[in-house]
Recover the amino acids of this structure.
């Protein structure tokens, strides 16, 4: 057989990435040829592309190491990729109603989301420090543009600039850590680094490299103290863009964090565990207390997301397979809660525009009872009240910490949840008990469907998707051990 002939069957683990890359090119051609006025066609095409890619991962699974060891396909990557693709697809659907008002009506918007998602899939399957960085930068460059997609809006432009400057700083920190790791192990391939640590042991230079590398990844998941960009970018960016930032990129960065610490640096677990525990505690505490005084609903969501990253890191702190399962389940439920929350926010529009402040939600239960009911369900789920899905998310994370005898961490997590209940319940109180201050416009049909699906899944989680999700997460976590 001719060695120059490419064996496409051997590339099966990379089919999702190849499909997304080809799809992005086709959508770009469609957008350019048909004109930006028909951008809705590109948007629906992008949603279909993302869903088909997710179906390919689910129903035609393929595993293996490709491209001289820089790309890996395993059960963990499959789980996280499906979450990333789902988060991206729903974020695009959220942007469709009144797209021109958000600045997301341009055909470039959907293509940038697809390209960012391609970078996220590359991150999740990265098996080398170089492929890790390429995937991270492909995601980041698209996100910088998305933050400032509404070019005539000063706040959006400022958000994009802040994100770009701080993102470039975090990329530099991550790259410096990667160079230190390469310098002290002699390898960029993650599996070869594992062998180097096993044979040569830990060194001060390697520990410094790991610290810088994890700091760069912590920026992407908004973990404290690398969270400073989150409130400003969430508030300044158009709301559908904020919804995208709060879902898919967080999942991809968390997947990268898990793969690095549980696989590559498992030999120095004692060292990275201290870092993860610190990130977890700091994120939970700051997320709980900083959100209390917020008046802007998007800034409140930003601090809430920081807190939830801390809860997910509780599971990772254990350093066990149960902990990785907890992280996987937590991120899946977090995506569902976030999509439902942003669907509710985008449904509440007055003559003056979309709700910006928490006080603007006053009387929503009287004018839009369905939206208020779904939002209340999401709020109770974010608190972690049983039997909603959020309770089971925190249950899995705290259970992993208790199994690893990290009792103080679990107690801090429970206390942070109790504090956060204040500002979640305040939103419910304002919607149901305060007098209306404005008339709300009619809710677009697409948002009603998304809210209904999210609310149904959060309420019936234990009886519907709970068992299949736990089984999928168990298989995913097992591939790292």
């Amino acid at each position: 057989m001719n060695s120059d002939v490419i064996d496409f069957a051997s590339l099966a683990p990379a089919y999702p990435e190849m499909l997304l890359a080809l799809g992005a090119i086709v959508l770009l051609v469609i957008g350019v040829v048909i004109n930006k006025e028909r951008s809705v066609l590109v948007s629906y095409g992008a949603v279909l592309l993302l869903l088909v890619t997710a179906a390919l991962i689910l129903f035609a699974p393929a595993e293996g190491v490709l491209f001289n060891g820089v790309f890996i396909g395993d059960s963990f990557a499959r789980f996280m990729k499906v979450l990333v693709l789902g988060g991206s697809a729903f974020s695009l659907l959220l942007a469709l109603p009144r797209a021109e008002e958000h600045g997301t009506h341009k055909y470039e918007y959907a293509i940038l989301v697809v390209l960012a998602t391609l970078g996220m899939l590359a991150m999740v399957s990265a098996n080398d420090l170089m492929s890790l960085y390429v995937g991270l930068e492909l995601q980041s460059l698209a996100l910088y543009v998305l933050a400032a997609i509404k070019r005539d809006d000063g706040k959006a432009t400022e958000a994009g600039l802040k994100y770009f400057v701080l993102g470039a700083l975090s990329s530099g920190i991550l790259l410096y850590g990667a160079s230190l790791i390469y310098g002290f192990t002699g390898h960029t391939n993650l599996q070869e680094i594992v062998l180097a640590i096993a044979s040569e042991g830990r060194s001060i230079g390697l520990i410094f490299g790991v610290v810088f590398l994890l700091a760069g990844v912590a920026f992407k998941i908004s973990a404290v103290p690398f969270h400073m960009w989150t409130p400003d970018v969430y508030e300044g960016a158009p709301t559908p863009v904020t919804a995208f930032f709060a879902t898919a990129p967080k999942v991809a960065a968390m997947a990268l964090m898990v793969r690095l610490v549980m696989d590559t640096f498992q030999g120095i677990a004692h060292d990275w565990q201290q870092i993860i525990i610190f990130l977890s505690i700091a994120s939970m505490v700051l997320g709980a207390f900083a959100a209390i005084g917020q008046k802007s609903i998007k800034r409140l969501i930003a601090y809430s997301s920081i807190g939830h990253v801390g809860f997910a890191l509780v599971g990772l702190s254990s350093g066990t397979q149960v902990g990785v399962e907890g992280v996987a389940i937590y991120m899946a439920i977090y995506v569902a809660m976030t999509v439902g929350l942003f669907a509710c926010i985008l449904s509440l529009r007055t003559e003056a525009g979309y709700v910006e402040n928490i006080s603007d939600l006053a009387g929503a239960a009287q004018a839009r009872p369905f939206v208020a009911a779904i939002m209340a369900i999401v709020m109770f789920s974010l608190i972690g009240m049983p039997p909603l899905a959020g309770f089971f998310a925190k249950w899995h994370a705290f259970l992993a910490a208790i199994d690893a005898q990290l009792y103080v961490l679990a107690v801090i997590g429970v206390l942070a949840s109790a504090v956060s209940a204040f500002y979640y319940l305040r939103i419910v109180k304002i919607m149901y008990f305060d007098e209306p201050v404005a008339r709300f416009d009619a809710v677009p049909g697409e948002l009603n469907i998304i809210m209904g699906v999210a609310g149904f899944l959060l309420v019936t989680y234990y009886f519907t998707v709970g068992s299949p999700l736990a089984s999928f997460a168990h298989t995913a976590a097992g591939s790292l051990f």
